[in-house]
Specification:
This protein has one domain. The protein is built from 14 helices and no strands. Helix 2 packs parallel to helix 7, helix 4 packs parallel to helix 8 and helix 8 packs antiparallel against helix 11. The protein is globular and about 55 Å long.
Length: 274
């Protein structure tokens, strides 16, 4: 266990030295504050609380931004060390290869979790100070927690990419491709498939499975249907009643999306010739 924390601490120190923590925190805080004060303007007409509107806005921001930040953090975690020759040095110490993967993952996850919690927390704090409305605060906290969970998914996917490729350029290209697939292409293809199918083949159960096959969709359904105010404002109240995807199932899917790629990364590094 000590080895894991030593490696994680090294990654956190590298993040501080490279200004990753500062940059991601400021970026998330700036965008969250902008969406909080500009995106909550419709509350007077739709009758939703400002926190509920902010949850919807930040959930959409999270789907696009947090996976990209996570992949940029993780895509060269293994292959970059290999190219620089530092991986051989690290493995010359009494540390297992799986410990390298898990320790580095914990360090990168800590960076992402800190940036997300502080950045989004600043928006929640500012909203409470200016509006004094604590309604939906639990939903907001849950959104921050699941945003960190979504980031962990893509950090794990980034590690899998980094462990199986042989150069940083390929890893970077695959990371961008994964981001485009899960954030943009998958939903567009799914929507087109539903339009063409017109309910003839794809049942509700099959649609649920297709949603679980994309971690971004699992995050979206979890946050935009979990609260009545958020689901009504997001136009997903009907989906929350009929989707059949419980919060426990969605959380389990996200956890599996972390465990499987991370386990694959540890296995790939264990078999890699150095």
């Amino acid at each position: 266990m000590t080895n894991l924390w030593i490696i994680a601490d090294k990654e956190i120190r590298d993040g501080l030295r490279n200004r990753w923590i500062l940059a991601t925190t400021l970026l998330l805080a700036a965008l969250a504050l902008t969406l909080t004060f500009l995106g909550s303007a419709p509350t007077g007409t739709v009758g939703a609380s400002r926190l509920a509107v902010t949850v919807v806005s930040l959930s959409s921001l999270t789907i696009f931004l947090v996976p990209l930040i996570a992949l940029l953090l993780a895509y060269d975690a293994v292959v970059g060390e290999f190219d620089r020759g530092t991986l051989l040095l690290l493995l010359s110490y009494p540390v297992a290869r799986w410990q390298v993967v898990i320790g580095k993952f914990l360090g990168h996850l800590a960076i992402l979790a800190f940036a997300t919690a502080v950045g989004y927390g600043a928006a929640a704090g500012a909203l409470l100070l200016t509006d004094g409305d604590a309604e939906g605060l639990t939903t907001f906290a849950a959104m921050i927690g699941t945003s960190i969970l979504l980031g962990a998914v893509f950090v794990a996917i980034g590690y899998l990419i980094s462990a199986i490729v042989r150069d940083r350029g390929t890893a970077g290209g695959l990371a961008i491709g994964v981001w485009l697939l899960f954030v943009l292409i998958y939903d567009m293809a799914l929507l087109g498939l539903l339009v063409v199918d017109k309910g003839r083949t794809i049942s509700a159960e099959m649609l649920n499975i297709l949603l679980l096959l994309n971690p971004a969709d699992a995050f979206r359904v979890l946050n935009l249907t979990g609260s009545g105010g958020a689901s009504r404002f997001a136009g997903m109240a009907g989906l929350s009643d009929n989707a059949g995807l419980s919060p426990a199932l969605l959380l389990t899917a996200l956890v599996l999306w972390i465990a499987l790629p991370l386990g694959g990364a540890a296995l790939a590094l264990g078999r890699r010739q150095l």
